Structure formats: C-alpha cells, structure tokens
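Task: sequence design from structure.
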C-alpha cells in the first residue's frame, strides 16, 4: 500500500466526516407530546391496521410497521361497532370527529381528537375507515393505561415487547453503510484482497457522528509496527480535536443562522397574524397568506385551493402568489390530482423534495398542507421551489403553525359570518313572520273563495321566493281536483284531475307535510312538466292543505334552477298552508251558513209570495227575479210542461219557458223558448226523470244543451216542479262560476221548489176555478136566456152571443138537421166577426165535416193539422184552411138536432179539451132550448089546427046546400093555410061528368116543387 494512497484515503475520509457535521440529525429525548404532527391510518371494518404513516412513532413511540395487521383496539378504546361511525357514501362528505384514548409506549394513555371517513371499494362496498389523529398538547390528558381498559399482557409480539419497554429487534440487512460503499467504490474489485483492516474509533466525536478512522494495507501478512500505530493514534488525536472544534464552530454558526431565520420567520408570521385579523373576506385572507408564505419560505410560488363542491371532489384556486403563471385564480382542479391527493387524504403537511408534475413544470420541491376550520376541510395550501430538497422538517413544522393561524382566522371568519347570517336570518325571519301575520289578517277580511286564494298566492312570494304559485283543491261534488294558478289577471283554473297520482302536489298530500325538490327536470312528475317548460322552474316546494284533520288540497311554489329551498322554507310553507287551509275551511263554512240562511230567507219569501199571488202570469216572473237576486245567480227561469198542447200543439212533449230573469229571460220568452222533455237539456232531463240535475262545468258537459242566450253560464242546476205527484215543470238556476252548486243545495232548494210547485198548481187551480166560475156564470146566464124564449131564431142568436163570450172563434155557424128530409139548414153563419149568409143555406146530408158529426153523433176536435186530420177521416176539404177546428152535435137523447162549430185561422188560438167541454155544454143547452121551441111551436100549431078545423066544421055545418058547403070549405082552408085552395070532385062515370070547384084565392099560386141541393156546408163555408 503506497503512502500517497493512505494519505489521500485518509484525507477523503476526513473531508467526508467534516462535511457530515453540517447535517443535523434527529434530536432524541424530546417529549412525545411536543412532537405530535398528525398521524394517518387506515383500518378494516374489523379494526385491523392496513396502513399507517411514520408519524405514529412520534405520537405513540411505536413504529408504523409494528402496527400493520394489528387491531386498533389493542392500543386504544376505539370501538368499531359504534353506531355513530360513518358507514355510508352519504356520510363521507365530511369527516366525523371522535375522541380516542391511545396507549403510549411508556405505559400511559392520552385522549386524542381524530377525524374519520368511511372507505369503499370499486363496487361502492364498505371496507373500513381512514382516520387522521392531529397533534395536540395533551399533557393534562394523560391517564393510566388501566383506565382505558388496555392490558399489556394481551398485546401480541412484537407490539407487546415494544410497549413493555424492550428494545425492538434490529432489522437484518446486507447493505453496507454509506462510507463502506464509498470505500468499496474506490477500491473496486480489490476489496476482497485486502489482507488486513485496522479500525480505530474516533471516540471524541459527538454522539450523532458515527464514523471510523481506517488504515488499510493490501498485504494480508503485514504486521503493524508500533510507530505506525502511534502515528495513527496521533493523527486520531489531532483529528479528534480538529473535528470537535470544527463541529462546535459549525453548530454555533448554524445555531446563529437558524436563530436569525427563526426570528425572521416569526416576525413575518406575527405580521401575517395581524394582517389576517384585519381582513374582511375569505379571498383577501387567502391572498394575504400566500403572499406572506413566499417571504417566509423564500419560495418561488404559492397558492391556496378551496373546495367548490365536496360531493364532486373539485378544488378552485382562491389565491396565487409568485412567478408560476400557469396557475390562475378561478381554475378548477380535481382533488384526485396527485399534487393534492396525498396531503388531503392523510390530513398532514407533506414535503416532496424531488417533485415533478405537469401543473408545475419548473418546480422541484413542494410543501403542501390541508386547511381546516372547525374540524371541516376548507382546502389546501401549496408552496413550491425551483430547486430540489428546498424544504426540511423545520419548514414542515413552521407551515403547520401557519396553517394553524390560518385555520383560526377562518374559524373566526366563519363564526363572524355565522353571527351575521344568524342576525340576518333573524331579521329575515322576523320580516317573514310579519308578512305571515299580515296575510292572516288580510285573509280574515277576504269576502270570497277566489279572493282568499288570490291573496295567499300573491303574498307567498314575499315570504318564500317564487316565480310561480299553484294550488290544487278537491271538490267533493264532482270528485275532481282543480288546479289553480296565479296569473297577471288573477286566479285561473288551469287543470282538472280525477286523482293526483304521479304529481308532486300529490306527494305532499300523501305525506301530509311540506316537501321540497331540486333538479325538477330530472323527475317525471306530471304537474311539473308545464312549469319547467314555461317558467324554467327547477326547484319547488309543496305543502298540503289540512283542515279538520282532512287533506283537501295542496299549495306549490317554484323557483329557477339556481335556487333551492331550505328546511326553514318548508316550515314557513306549512305555516302558510295551515293559515290558507283554515281560512278556506272557515270561509266555506261561513259561506255554507250564509248560503243556507239566504236559501231559507228566499224560500220563505217565495212561500209568502206564492201564498198571496194566485195569478201564474204575475207569480212566476216575480219568483224568478227573487230567486236570482236572493241566491246571487246569473240567471233563473221556470219551465212548465205543455200538458194539453195548448202552446206547442203537442201535448206532454215540451217544457215551455213561462218566466225568465233579466234581459235573456225576456228574449227567450219573446222567442217562445221551449225544451224537449227527455231531450239533451237539463230541464228536459229533470222533467223526464223527476230528479234534480247538476252540471259543475257546462262547457265540459257536452251532453247537455248550451243556451246561446246565456253564454256566461258555467254551472247549472235544474229542479223538477212536482205537485201532488205530477211534474209541472222545472226551475233552472245558473251561475257564472264553476261548481257553484252542491248536493246540499239540492236538498234545501228542492223544498223551496216543491213549495213553488204547489203554489203554481194552486194558482192554476184557482185560475181554472175562476175561469170555470166565469164559464158557469155565462152558461147559467145563457140557460136563463133560453128559458125566456121559445123563438128558434132568438135561441140561435143567443147561442152565438154566449159562445163568443166563452171562447175565441174566427168562424162560427149553427146548422139544424131535418131527419125526415135529410136536409141541413145553416141558421147562422159568422166569418171573422161579420154575419154573412151561408154559402149554401140548405144542403142534403153528404160527406162534409158537419155531415160526419151528424152521422156519428160525436164531437170533432182538431187542435192543429186540420187538413191532415180531415183527410185521415175521409172528409172532403172545402173553403178556407183553418189552424184549429171544433164542432159538437146538438143532441136530444139519440136524436141530432144539428151542429155548432167554431174554427180558428191563427196559431195563437187553438182549441183544447176545455173549449170542447164548453162548446159541448153550449150545444147541450142550445139543443134543449131549440127542442123546447120546436115542441112549443108544434103544440101551438096543433092547437091552431084543431081550432081552425072546428071553425071550418062550424061554417060548413051552417051551410044549407052542397055548393055553399064546398065554397065555405075552400075559403076557410085557403085562409088557414095562406094559400090557394080548391076542391076537385070526381063523379062516377055512369053518374055524372067530373067537375071542379074554383079556388078560394085565385091570386095565390102553388109553389113549384124545388129539389134541395146536395151540397153540404163545409168547415170553411
């Protein structure tokens, strides 16, 4: 071995040793409680350690490798079966704070604050927990291990040995110290041939310098001489002294430099603390922090990234400082970026001195640390340097202090903001409650159902921000849900549904509590589709309307997609719904009571009027106006059945309007408005079925007749008028509001309608009685007139007079029939009030209508369609056409004296059964009078005949010869008959020739025989 090699080798080793003096090593003996910087760990669901960071050794004095596959319960009171521990993805948004008692290697235990998150595999299955135990000063929290229930004898080896104080086993390794590697590198392959190694420990070096002074000779048989050994010892002694002096100097210089640096950093830290105490917002806080840490760490750049949405795992750059222009404020990064992930995951300050990442292309060293406020992660701070190995353990400790200050400032800011928000919330809550009270007061003064809805919806926006407001109400009458919406023109019904399945308001009704919803567009609720399309609504809240323990509807408000409703909004929504429901219920009850009261008052008034007015033409118009006004209706009308066809010509086929309210009623009366019984109208159905009819929405009830005279009608009710079991007609009441009538209205109004029907029937009967009394008066007067004369002509004249007083007739005639000669003689003939000679005074019995009555001895009534009926009877039609025709025979027993007939030329006058009865009574009395007259004249003629016969006989008997007798007989007979008379004597041939006696009145000539015409007087004659 050459001397030069030895010297060079020795120099190299010395240089190496001196250079090592500049690197401080670990400082043993420090209290464990002053070195807690945070320890991250992961355990399985059974509590077995599967990962642990080296900080555990500072925290517990236990190496991390010793904890792997050990149970956390062996060194703590941590219970994995605690139900408060997070186990679901929803619980992974924020860490759960727990307090755990851990066991230290010295046998003592202490309380520690931990933050725990659940862990899941790729299939989202729960696998265990990840936790971070933060550094705290827990000197006062130390307790004996027995208090947390840890028995050292139960600890497995090597954990048991380490906890009990035994020295942990030294890991075996074939690796050589760095110095040996260096020597071997210099020696190359010759190291194996080194015959002898003399080692001499440098004992005077500080404990942290582990080094040897080595002298190596390549001759394995060489014996070291005493002087050589002495030389080495002298060198060792000098080296020891030099190294000690150098080390002392370097430590002194380094301590002074560290003291100055520490003072500088502390000064900047104090300045940062003062500045952060004066800022008023988070962004300024972050910016001031990154600007200061660049000065503290003499770094090239720094930034702070904060959470934007923890559910999405996104970070946003909140502040930047330095020369890294690639990172800008507002940039969004995923928390999964490896530059952030390690520090965020472990919850520790992390130093990376050999760093390379595309986000920071020129950076070679970074130090990162998570920012917490009130135990909740806020973001992360990153400091970068362009040189490698720029950060050490002291930087890690100092950044921890900076983060602690920043966290305290953020907590104070959060507390301040929370206080401000609480104050603002309190003021806002007070304002909302004031609005709620005003709503309650206003609703108490509302006068209508719709006004209640409109006031509520209009004020909701002042209490709960909304762009649209809807309400749904259930109607028991038609079993439908009606949806109302507040528009610029007030409340409007926008939909009707038989059920609310598949609707969001139906959900609120079913749950009987307020429900809110965001991201409406991602749902399939039917009632929200219109809102999203027309109002861009994406957030809604609905509350049920509950009164008297019954849910009868719901109210809903919605806002744009950037707005969401809180639980406080849900509470307010329930309050609004409660007030609205109570008001609607009270209003409905009040309206029912008021309506019932009005109904009773109106019914009583109708009964009073009906009992005092007996004229139907006066009674009905007054009743409909009273009903319309009393019930606040759009229209009221009364229809009566045309039983005898007097109005329509078709008995029992039509219900005819007899009275209608307002202008529409007058128009329909003038038009002769009528409705078919059993047809498509509610009136016709009510009359045909004797049942009340209701239509809650006339526009939707396509099966019912829609009246063009009443375009504003929205709901209608028809009530049959029934008296003594007979349907007289129906009452119609109509409203311009939908669903204005209920089943209760039928019950109350039907009673009034029955009273009205009885009044109409009584008025009709009274009218009939009056008419009958008048008719009887006329008939009695006619009977008395007939008893005062036996003159046939005067009787015929009287029949015309009294018939005209009892009925209207455009044509009247009376014909007498002589059964011996079959001759019909028209004794009187009147045409449109003028007496005219009959077209044919006498006719033989033929095929006319008069002939038909005489032949069949029954009356003929033709209310209408006269020509058609006559054709059907086989009667020849003559003369002017009539609208209505009536003829009755004048009968004495089985003998027909003649016919009385009347006819009308206008539709306004139609003959019915009443006219038939009247004319039959007239014909009967007239027949008796004519028969009496005929009998009187026959009796008087017989008496005159007998008297004349006696006188002639006396004159003849006083004559003395035959010629005088014959002349006397001829004279007296001629005088008695008023005609010429003669006597022709016929002698027997053998006795004498025939002779003739001269007439008594030669100026009289006998009337020639005349043949009566066979023509009959027709109904038109």
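Answer:
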């Amino acid at each position: 071995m050459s001397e030069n090699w030895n010297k060079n080798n020795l120099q190299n080793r010395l240089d190496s040793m001196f250079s090592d003096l500049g690197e401080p090593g670990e400082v043993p003996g420090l209290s464990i409680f002053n070195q807690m910087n945070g320890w991250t760990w992961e355990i399985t669901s059974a509590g077995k350690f599967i990962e642990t960071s080296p900080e555990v050794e500072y925290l517990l004095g236990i190496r991390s490798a010793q904890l792997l596959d050990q149970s956390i319960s062996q060194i703590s009171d941590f219970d994995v079966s605690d139900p408060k521990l997070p186990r679901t993805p929803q619980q992974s948004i924020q860490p759960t704070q727990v307090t755990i008692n851990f066991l230290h290697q010295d046998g003592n235990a202490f309380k520690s604050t931990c933050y725990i998150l659940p862990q899941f595999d790729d299939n989202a299955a729960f696998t265990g927990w990840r936790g971070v135990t933060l550094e705290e000063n827990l000197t006062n929290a130390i307790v004996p291990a027995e208090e947390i229930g840890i028995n050292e004898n139960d600890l497995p080896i090597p954990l048991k040995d380490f906890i009990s104080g035994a020295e942990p086993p030294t890991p075996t390794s074939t690796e050589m110290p760095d110095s040996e590697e260096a020597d071997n590198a210099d020696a190359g392959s010759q190291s194996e041939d080194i015959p002898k190694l003399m080692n001499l420990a440098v004992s005077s070096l500080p404990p942290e310098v582990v080094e040897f002074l080595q002298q190596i000779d390549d001759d394995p048989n060489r014996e070291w001489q005493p002087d050589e050994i002495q030389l080495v010892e002298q060198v060792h002694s000098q080296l020891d002294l030099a190294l000690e002096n150098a080390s002392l100097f370097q430590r002194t210089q380094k301590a002074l430099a560290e003291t100055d640096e520490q003072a500088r950093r502390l000064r900047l830290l104090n300045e940062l603390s003062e500045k952060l105490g004066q800022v008023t917002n988070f962004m300024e806080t972050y910016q001031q922090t990154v600007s200061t840490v660049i000065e503290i760490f003499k770094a090239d750049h720094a930034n702070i990234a904060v959470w934007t949405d923890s559910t999405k795992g996104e970070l946003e750059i909140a502040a930047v400082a330095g020369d890294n222009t690639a990172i800008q404020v507002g940039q969004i990064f995923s928390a999964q970026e490896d530059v952030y992930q390690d520090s965020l995951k472990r919850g520790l300050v992390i130093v990376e001195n050999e760093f390379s990442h595309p986000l920071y292309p020129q950076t070679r060293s970074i130090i990162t640390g998570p920012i917490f406020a009130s135990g909740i992660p806020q973001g992360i701070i990153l400091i970068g340097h362009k040189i490698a190995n720029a950060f050490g353990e002291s930087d890690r400790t100092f950044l921890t202090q900076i983060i602690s200050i920043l966290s305290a400032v953020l907590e104070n800011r959060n507390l301040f903001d929370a206080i401000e928000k609480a104050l603002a919330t309190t003021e806002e809550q007070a304002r909302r409650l004031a609005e709620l009270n005003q709503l309650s007061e206003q609703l108490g003064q509302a006068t209508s159902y719709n006004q209640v809805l409109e006031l509520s919806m209009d004020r909701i926006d002042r209490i709960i921000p909304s762009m649209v407001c809807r309400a749904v109400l259930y109607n028991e009458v038609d079993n439908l849900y009606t949806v109302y919406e507040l528009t610029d023109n007030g409340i409007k019904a926008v939909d009707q549904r038989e059920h609310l399945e598949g609707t969001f308001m139906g959900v609120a009704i079913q749950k009987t509590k307020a429900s809110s919803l965001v991201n409406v567009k991602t749902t399939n609720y039917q009632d929200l589709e219109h809102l999203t399309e027309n109002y861009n609504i994406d957030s809604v809240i609905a509350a049920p309307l509950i009164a008297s323990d019954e849910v009868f509807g719901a109210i809903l408000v919605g806002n744009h997609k950037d707005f969401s409703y809180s639980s406080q909004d849900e509470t307010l929504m329930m309050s609004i719904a409660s007030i609205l429901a109570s008001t609607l219920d009270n209003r409905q009850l009040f309206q029912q009571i008021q309506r019932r009261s009005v109904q009773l008052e109106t019914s009583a008034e109708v009964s009073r009027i009906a009992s005092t007015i007996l004229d139907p033409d006066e009674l009905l118009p007054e009743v409909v106006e009273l009903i319309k006004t009393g019930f606040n209706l759009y229209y009221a009308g009364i229809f009566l059945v045309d039983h005898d066809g007097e109005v329509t010509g078709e008995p029992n086929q039509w219900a005819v309007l007899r009275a209608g309210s307002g202008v529409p009623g007058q128009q329909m009366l003038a038009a002769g408005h009528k409705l078919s019984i059993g047809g498509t109208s509610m009136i016709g159905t009510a009359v045909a079925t004797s049942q009340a009819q209701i239509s809650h929405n006339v526009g939707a009830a396509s099966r019912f007749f829609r009246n063009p005279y009443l375009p504003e009608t929205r709901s209608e009710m028809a009530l049959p008028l029934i008296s003594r079991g007979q349907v007289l007609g129906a009452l119609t009441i109509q409203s311009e509001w939908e669903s204005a009538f209920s089943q209760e209205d039928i019950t109350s109004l039907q009673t009034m309608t029955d009273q009205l029907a009885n009044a109409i029937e009584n008025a009709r009967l009274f009218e009939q009685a009056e008419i009958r009394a008048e008719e009887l008066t006329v008939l009695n007067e006619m009977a008395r007139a007939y008893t005062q004369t036996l003159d046939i002509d005067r009787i015929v004249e009287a029949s015309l007079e009294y018939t005209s007083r009892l009925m209207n007739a455009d044509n009247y005639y009376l014909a007498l029939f002589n059964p011996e000669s079959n001759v019909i003689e028209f004794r009187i003939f009147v045409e449109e009030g003028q007496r005219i000679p009959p077209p044919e005074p006498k006719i033989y019995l033929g095929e006319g209508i008069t002939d038909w009555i005489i032949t069949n001895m029954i009356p003929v009534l033709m209310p209408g369609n006269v020509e058609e009926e006559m054709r059907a009877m086989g009667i020849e039609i003559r003369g002017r056409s009539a609208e209505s025709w009536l003829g009755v025979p004048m009968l004495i027993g089985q003998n027909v004296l003649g016919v009385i007939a009347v006819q009308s030329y206008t539709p306004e006058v139609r003959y019915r059964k009443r006219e038939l009865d009247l004319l039959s009574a007239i014909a009967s009395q007239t027949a008796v009078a004519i028969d009496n007259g005929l009998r009187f004249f026959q009796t008087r003629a017989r008496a005159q005949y007998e008297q004349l016969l006696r006188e002639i006989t006396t004159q003849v008997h006083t004559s003395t010869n035959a010629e005088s007798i014959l002349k006397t007989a001829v004279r007296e007979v001629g005088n008695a008959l008023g005609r010429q008379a003669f006597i022709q004597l016929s002698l027997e041939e053998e006795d004498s020739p025939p002779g003739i006696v001269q007439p008594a009145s030669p100026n009289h000539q006998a009337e020639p025989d005349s043949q009566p015409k066979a023509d009959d007087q027709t109904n038109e004659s």
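The first strand starts at residue 39 and ends at 44.
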